[in-house]
Design a protein that fits this description.
Length: about 325
């Protein structure tokens, strides 16, 4: 009985050992196959991360944000107004300057009307001079009468010249004051324009840093936009690959497409770094032994599936 029990207890032990050995062998075989497939599937020359040119839109005026209609994910046009900062005080100051400019302009003299009387006197003096000349020519007048008429005419002409000079100087001063007021009005108009919150370039709102009702200052970030239609893949290549890469070169870019595999995009090299740098930890190149790599930017037209921060691969 004891011997039988020992034989019965040994069969399950040998069966468990056999199962463990079989499982270990399967793991080794499948691991080797997976590793081999992984090495064969590495058909890219470099990898990197998709990025885009990001623009941080900041406030250009001080005051309370009255409206800010820009939410994360909104697609904005270049020049589109999405809000404004309180500008009541600036507008009132502009109205005050406009009224002041009109008051200054009202002091402008009408030169033609101011010298009309003097010109009439000159015309009369000229006729008197001609009459004296005619009388003197017929021996009906004296030289003194002619001299007195010419002297009177000269006085009136000098008086007209003085009036014209004074009036012109007065109008020049008025014009300068009006120009100064108009310059101040233009400054206020520029400040009023800066109270409008405008998107400077087309793009998608990535982040929003302020809300309507908050008080902002000039230079404070309000939101961030990026052009998601045209993204870039920043990849890194080793020195051995650098000779095969040139600006303007057309390449193939691949991005993960869920469980279905990779999606191919047409790309174009737009920039190559002029200096080498150490390999980033998150970037792999074909030659993993290379310590120094060169950054490369590849422009890719986004079909809506590419997201910033996604990993991509490139084939030169």
């Amino acid at each position: 009985m004891k011997s039988g029990n020992r034989q019965g207890d040994g069969k399950p032990g040998r069966l468990c050992q056999f199962r463990r050995a079989y499982r270990l062998a399967c793991v080794v075989v499948w691991g080797g196959l997976a590793a081999a497939c992984g090495r064969d599937g590495e058909d890219f020359d470099a990898s990197g991360i998709f990025e885009s040119t990001e623009i941080i839109v900041s406030a250009e005026a001080n005051g309370r944000i009255m409206a800010l209609d820009a939410e994360e994910g909104d697609v904005l046009r270049a020049g589109q107004q999405v809000g404004f900062v309180d500008s009541v005080q600036l507008y009132l100051k502009k109205c005050q300057l406009e009224a002041s400019a009109r008051g200054i302009g009202s002091r402008r003299a009408d030169i033609a009307k101011q010298v009309a009387a003097t010109r009439a006197q000159i015309e009369k003096a000229e006729r008197e001079r001609e009459r004296c000349r005619n009388l003197l020519a017929r021996d009906a007048g004296t030289q003194k009468q002619l001299d007195d008429a010419e002297a009177q005419l000269a006085v009136l002409e000098r008086q007209l010249a003085a009036q014209l000079s004074t009036l012109e100087n007065t109008n020049q001063g008025v014009g300068d004051e009006v120009a100064a007021a108009e310059a101040q009005i233009m400054q206020l108009e520029d400040q009023l324009a800066k109270c409008r919150i405008v998107c400077p370039a087309p793009g998608t709102v990535l982040a929003k840093y302020a809300e309507a009702g908050e008080v902002t200052t000039a230079g404070k970030p309000l939101f961030k936009v990026a052009d998601m239609q045209r993204v870039f893949l920043r990849a890194y290549v080793g020195g051995a690959q650098l000779s095969a890469v040139r600006v303007g070169q057309k390449v193939k870019v691949y991005a993960d497409e869920g469980e279905d595999g990779r999606r191919e995009y047409a790309g174009r090299v737009t920039w190559i770094a002029s200096q080498a740098e150490f390999t980033p930890k998150t970037i792999q190149t074909r030659d993993e032994r290379a310590n120094l790599v060169y950054a490369v930017k590849i422009a890719v037209e986004n079909d809506g599936l590419l997201k910033l921060g996604m990993y991509g691969e490139v084939k030169f």
